[in-house]
Amino acid sequence: MLAAAEVRYCVGLHDRMPEVERQAVALRMLDGDSPGPLVVRWNLHRGFLYQAAKQRYEPFDRLVDEDRETRRILARMAADAFRAKQKVWITANNKAEGSAPLSLLKLAHEIAQAIG
């Protein structure tokens, strides 16, 4: 249904969304034999509401609550997509770990390691 409408499912990391692994399984099922690009929005650290995360992480200049498990899973998903010649878009919010730029730097390092 999504493919027919030329729409791509976006993996959303937010407290009200299913765990990232569950979304990865759903994405594989939606893709079937023709996977599309990997699109991820890493918005919010699990267990936090937006305002609570904002207050905890301001001024967003360091990683306060590193989410190594999510980072590991995203790195694996991105590496798999790269190997399959798929495009990858991953964005992060400061409320994911405390600093979006630092979260993405660490994620990029893990993706590079996963690719080899």
Could you explain the architecture of this structure?
With 116 residues, the chain is mostly helical. It has one domain. The protein contains five helices and three strands, in the order βαβααβαα. Strands 1-2-3 form a three-stranded parallel sheet. β1, α1 (20-31) and β2 form a beta-alpha-beta unit. α3 packs across α5 (100-115). The chain is globular, with a radius of gyration of 14 Å. The mean pLDDT is 92.
* Strand line-up in the sheet with most strands: 1-2-3
Characterize the largest beta sheet: strand count, sense, and whether it forms a barrel. Answer: 3 strands, parallel
**Over the alpha carbons, how many angstroms does the gyration radius reach?**
14 Å
**Alpha-carbon distance between the two ends:** 35 Å
Low-confidence stretches: none
Task: Using the alpha-carbon principal axes, give the shape.
Answer: globular
Structural class: mainly alpha
Q: What's the domain count? A: 1
Mean pLDDT: 92
- Topology order in helix (H) and strand (E) letters: EHEHHEHH
Residue share in β-strands? 5-15%
Q: Helical percent range?
A: 40-55%
Number of strands: 3
Number of helices: 5
Primary descriptors:
globular, mainly alpha, 116 residues, three-stranded parallel beta sheet, 11% strand
